From TrEMBL:
Residue span, Citrate transporter-like domain: 4-355
Keyword flag Protein biosynthesis: no
InterPro entries: Arsenical_pump_ArsB, Cit_transptr-like_dom, Diverse_Ion_Transporter
Highest taxon of source: Bacteria
Membrane topology: Multi-pass membrane protein
Protein's recorded name: Na+/H+ antiporter NhaD/arsenite permease-like protein
Keyword Transmembrane helix: yes
Transmembrane segments: 39-59, 80-110, 167-187, 208-224, 230-245, 266-287, 293-317, 349-377, 389-412
Length: 416
């Protein structure tokens, strides 16, 4: 609790706070030394490092500026430019990791904001939370969905149509529709007319092709459940290395490699790696296990109450802790609850996934995509307070969760 309060209160020192907290967990023995490195999700770390190496090349090529020009030309006002970028990120995130999606789309949003001389915070935050939302739409969109598919024996198509009823994909799209209405209200004052200028000329198409190749390979890799654990991260790293080597050869400047590799991305990487260790310590201490059994005890024999507690408790816990260990702990608990209630577990599974995936949107540190988005803004010398983030994320999340809450119950629970 102290860690999270300090992270919220000291946005410029988030990485240092998380690192010191991780060190305390290790020193107190909650995370043994032999568990420190395994506790870190190196796949996510490598993905962020690889994409943050490609992003400067992508920006320098002029492609984000050209995409920004096209968006500016097509949109009637700033409000719709922000919403279209968020929807674009959401569509990609249903099939590509949320962090990778943010790293692809956020540079375009930042460029649009610079051209329109407005703050990029609303657009970048909207992109991050829209990406998290759509991660629950398909079996390959988020780690929690992959875990559900493996635990419940579901395949890719079951997320679209399951046992004769619409699946999670359509529930999430309903949530997105309500979230768009919230964005229309939140950004109602962003009604500045957009006047398009000349289209920026793209100087180099190779960085765009490299990022497109990353998207294609990440999408393809998601269909292989038994792939090596670092597959996605290595894809991003390999294409970053290709891009840097080509850029050095093109400009005949060896110093470019160091300038692209160092940057200020260490802040984001240290913050994320440290939080993985903190969550491992919390899990080892038994807090997540105790919370899951408390939920089970409160529900009793009431199916609707069990469903409601699981979904809303998942929203709450995922706002502060990584949803992956939480979902891993809760999936077997939910199965036991369903068996005790004499019902199929799908209703409770879907409530768990909706709550845990969407709940990560509430706080700046509730999801890796949020941390990544704030890291990109920090690279622009923009610090985002918890309050500024939550003014957008909380109403967005509540609209999506409430609509999903009723939709899942209508589709899967109305017979109880």
């Amino acid at each position: 609790m102290i860690t999270y309060l300090l992270i919220i209160a000291l946005p410029k020192a988030r990485a240092q706070v998380a690192f010191l907290s991780a060190a305390v967990f290790v020193l107190l023995g909650y995370v043994p030394l032999n568990e420190v490195l395994p506790a870190i999700d190196w796949n996510v770390i490598l993905m962020i490092r690889g994409m943050m190496g490609l992003v400067p090349l992508f920006i320098e090529s002029g492609m984000p500026a050209r995409l920004a020009d096209l968006i500016i030309w097509k949109m009637p006002d700033v409000k719709w430019a922000i919403i279209v970028l968020a929807v674009l990120a959401a569509g990609i995130s249903a099939f590509v990791d949320n962090v990778a999606t943010v790293l692809m789309i956020a540079p375009v949003a930042i460029t649009v904001s610079k051209k329109l001389r407005i703050s990029p915070v609303p657009a970048v935050v909207s992109i991050a939370i829209a990406s998290n939302l759509e991660g629950a739409a398909t079996m390959v969109g988020d780690t929690t969905s992959i875990m559900l598919g493996g635990h419940a024996g579901m395949d890719f198509l079951d997320f679209f149509w399951f046992e004769g009823r619409p699946g999670l994909f359509f529930v999430v799209q309903l949530g997105m529709l309500f979230a768009i209405q919230v964005m229309l209200y939140l950004f109602r004052d962003y009604d500045q007319e957009i006047i398009g200028g000349p289209l920026t000329k793209v100087q180099d198409y190779v960085p765009t092709l490299l990022i497109a190749a990353v998207i294609i390979l990440l999408s393809a890799a998601s269909f292989f459940p038994d792939k090596p654990p670092l597959t996605n991260g290595m894809i991003c790293i390999i294409f970053m290395v290709i891009g840097i080597i080509r850029d050095m050869a093109k400009k005949k400047d060896l110093s470019l490699a160091w300038s692209l590799i160092k940057g200020r991305d260490a802040f984001t990487l240290v913050l994320l790696a440290s939080l993985f260790i903190v969550i491992k310590g919390v899990s080892n201490a038994g807090i997540i296990d105790q919370a899951s059994f408390l939920i089970s005890g409160f529900a009793g024999d009431n199916v609707f109450l069990a469903y409601s507690i699981i979904l809303w408790a998942s929203v709450f816990f995922s706002a502060f802790i990584d949803n992956i260990p939480y979902v891993a702990t809760m999936l077997p608990v939910v199965g036991v609850m369903a068996s005790r209630l004499g019902m199929e577990p799908h209703l409770l599974y879907f409530g768990l996934i909706c709550g845990a995936t969407l709940g990560g949107n509430i706080s700046p540190i509730g999801a890796s995509a949020n941390i990544t988005a704030l890291g990109l803004l920090r690279n622009e010398d923009i610090e985002v307070s918890a309050g500024s983030f939550m003014r957008i994320s909380v109403p967005f999340t509540l609209a999506a969760v409430i609509s999903a809450y009723f939709a899942v119950w209508y589709l899967w629970g109305s017979g109880f």
